[in-house]
Specification:
Strands 9-10-12-11 form a four-stranded mixed β-sheet, with no helix packed on it. The chain has a two-stranded antiparallel sheet with strand order 1-2. A two-stranded antiparallel ribbon has the order 3-4. By secondary structure, the protein is mainly alpha-helical. Helix 7 packs antiparallel against helix 8. The longest helix has 33 residues. It is elongated.
């Protein structure tokens, strides 16, 4: 951060500079106590030292002398307030005039350090450098005009006038503001890892330079003409109107310049151009490490103490071990996410197997399938947020799948991740915003739409007493259904909190932070992603190419094409069934699975395929836990994903047709007779009760006697 310059003494230094000697000491890592150094006390971004070691021989004074000048400047500044009271006669005029005037000495040393540093380096007019130069200029104007106020004679003329206002604003407003913006632009990449836009920053600088000087410099002129401060309304005709109007208009320009800075922050945040480790080419210690600096764990979990971790992983660990009830809430949230996906999956299966997707409820089905897709994405993004080893492996798989998309894969991966995996720092923020805002907003909207459609169209119902295609028999929304739903809600919440408090899930402190070289086998994602992992494992080692160009990467088939086919068939199934059956009527009564054997068989075949692929996703666990050969497992599962659905289709269709032909309940007891002994010692054979279509039992018929044994029926 500091450029170090060596000279003999002040006179020698001036001579060397005037002679054009540009060689300066640029070894920033020397022991400061062992050299006589004249060093700038402020950051000079944009200066790139390009000089060999050695420098101009001799010293201008010790490094401690410059530090002493800073301390002297601070001390004298605390005693300079008295020059505001030189005209009151209440203070020792000579003392405070002396302390105010002596500020010239340390200020001169500091400015010489700035000028010599600039003279000895190659200046690049970056935005921080421009604001640093602007600070030097604005503060110099304020300091030089302070000589008037330090002199009792001159102060008597400008005291309590607009000359004082101009001096005050040049030192405290313009000087401080430019210095602050120099520091903001300079240190922004170190803090956030991305830079503010250079072009917009220069517009901000020049607007502020013009606005500040046009606003405050005319105040010197007004003060010389006798304009007194702290008066609300001045008499007209004094000749001050033009300057005052210029100052007012230019003050608005200052506000515009600040708005430009705000726009720079917002637009740069959207773009987030990586800054690199040393964007200013300073080659100093603070820029020798990554930007932002790496974070190291110092929490209570001792095995990880000192490990380099991301902010996301650090916050997850803090929530789990340092915040009261944090682990309870995190684990409850995780369990709730799993149950959420289970509930939507079971609901979707119920709709499919009962034909609830038929007209007029096709829109309900479409929104339900989209809701299931969003639930999976919600789970994946939330699972990936902690940046632990497991989530990092999942994101690596997702990145590979994105790159495998034909034609646009590379551009899409770079756009989403902000570069090559693991991506830019902005990716974690994008993932966070997607998980907590974008996907929840879409999910909430679809749930609201589902509820509105149910209220408008009413629930479907199974055939039964009094139920037809034109009416609804059931509990009213209020209070029956509402209270039941409320009770289910609180019961579910209670179970989830019990799981969160008693059953450990996703202990990220055991996995550790994500490091690509630490990836291991045997790691499993949450259950709803297991079938995607299985599809990736079962995909053959094949990539289509034409003329050396790969059309689609291998992960595309298992990671995107397979789930795309599954969800595509599920989404468009109402249209497929309508086209096959030619049934375009409106249905408010549900089918029993046996009523549509082919639909139930196709659903069972698809479900069998998904289950087999899901089990295949755990083949590495079977290898680790039971020693099953991994390659042999893959070969078996590759056969089963085709043979299993065919077998499931045949068996399911045959069972449904059998049930439909007999019209018996699947859980009805077996038909037959049981023997009962009477009081007279004889026996009777009584048939077992049959089950009616609606689930009721028929009454026993009167028994009759046959061949010494009476038989009922």
């Amino acid at each position: 951060m500091f450029e170090q310059i060596r000279f003999d003494n002040l006179t020698s230094a001036v001579k060397q500079v005037l002679r054009g000697r540009r060689r300066v000491e640029t070894d920033r890592f020397v022991a400061l106590g062992s050299h006589y150094l004249f060093e700038s006390q402020f950051t000079t971004p944009g200066i790139q030292g390009a000089h060999e070691k050695g420098g101009v021989e001799g010293e201008v004074g010790r490094y401690r002398a410059l530090v002493l000048s800073l301390l002297l400047f601070s001390g004298l500044s605390m005693a300079a307030w008295g020059h505001h009271m030189l005209q009151t006669g209440q203070i020792v005029t000579g003392l405070f005039a002396l302390t105010s005037t002596l500020l010239i000495l340390p200020a001169g040393m500091d400015y010489f350090a700035m000028a010599a540093t600039l003279y000895g380096g190659r200046i690049r007019l970056t935005v921080p450098m421009l604001f640093a130069l602007g600070f030097a200029l604005q503060f110099l104007i304020g300091g030089v005009t302070g000589i008037w106020l330090a002199s009792p004679t001159l102060d008597s003329h400008v005291h309590d006038g607009y000359f004082v206002v101009a001096h005050f604003h040049y030192t405290l407003f313009a000087g401080s503001l430019f210095g602050a913006f120099a520091a903001i632009y300079y240190w922004w990449p170190k803090v956030f890892g991305w830079t503010l836009r250079e072009g917009v920053g220069k517009v901000h600088f020049w607007l502020l330079v013009v606005a500040a000087n046009v606003t405050f410099f005319p105040m010197f002129l007004l003060g010389q003409e006798g304009m007194v401060r702290r008066i609300a309304d001045y008499p007209a005709g004094l000749g001050w109107e033009l300057y005052s109007r210029i100052e007012t208009a230019s003050a608005l320009l200052i506000a515009i310049a600040l708005l430009v800075f705000a726009w720079n922050v917002v637009s740069s945040n959207r773009r987030r151009a990586p800054a690199g480790d040393d964007p200013w080419l300073d080659q100093t210690l603070e820029w020798a490490i990554s930007s932002p600096p790496p974070r190291h764990y110092d929490g209570p979990f001792s095995p990880l103490r000192g490990a380099e971790i991301s902010r996301a992983y650090d916050s997850t660990l803090a929530l789990s071990s340092e915040i009261p009830a944090g682990l309870l809430m995190r684990q409850t949230h995780h369990w709730a996410a799993l149950v959420f996906v289970v509930a939507i999956t079971l609901h979707t299966l119920r709709i499919f197997f009962t034909g609830a997707f038929r007209s007029p409820r096709m829109l309900n089905h479409y929104t339900g399938v989209v809701l299931l897709t969003l639930a999976l994405l919600l789970g994946f993004t939330g699972y990936s947020l902690p940046d632990d080893l497991l989530s990092g492996m999942g994101l690596a798989i997702g990145y590979a799948a994105a790159l495998s998309i034909p034609v646009v894969g590379g551009d899409l991966g770079s756009l989403v991740w902000g570069g090559e995996y693991p991506g830019a720092d902005v990716f974690e923020s994008r993932l966070y915003a997607t998980h907590i805002f974008i996907l929840p907003a879409l999910t909430a909207g679809l749930i609201a739409a589902q509820l509105a459609l149910v209220i408008r169209q009413k629930h479907t119902q199974f055939p039964g007493g009094g139920r037809t295609e034109t009416n609804v028999v059931g509990a009213p929304l209020w209070a029956g259904q509402a209270l039941r739903s409320g009770g289910l809600f609180f019961a579910t919440a209670a179970v989830l909190f019990l799981l969160g408090g008693l059953v450990q899930i996703n202990p990220v402190w055991h996995w550790g932070p994500y490091k690509p070289h630490l990836a291991f086998n045997g790691a499993q994602p949450d259950w709803y992603l297991g079938w995607l992992i299985g599809a990736l494992r079962l995909t053959p080692n094949w990539e289509p190419t034409i003329g050396g160009y790969t059309l689609a990467g291998n992960p595309f088939f298992g990671g995107l094409l397979y789930p795309g086919i599954v969800f595509g068939l599920l989404f468009f199934w109402p249209n497929v069934e309508r086209a096959v059956t030619k049934d375009r009527g409106r249905h408010h009564l549900l089918d029993r699975p046996r009523d549509a054997p082919w639909r139930t068989a196709i659903g069972a075949a698809g479900l069998t395929n998904a289950v087999i692929v899901f089990v295949a996703g755990a083949s590495d666990r079977a290898l680790v836990e039971f020693g099953f050969d991994y390659v042999a497992q893959v070969r078996v599962f590759q056969v089963l994903i085709f043979a299993g659905p065919v077998l499931a289709y045949v068996l399911t269709k045959r069972i449904c047709e059998e049930f439909r032909s007999r019209e018996t309940h699947p859980l009805a007891p077996r038909s037959g007779h049981f023997v009962r002994r009477l009081y007279d010692g004889s026996f009777i054979a009584v048939p077992s009760p049959a089950v009616e279509e609606d689930g009721g039992r028929r009454a026993d018929v009167a028994p009759r006697r046959t061949h010494g044994v009476r038989q009922a029926g």
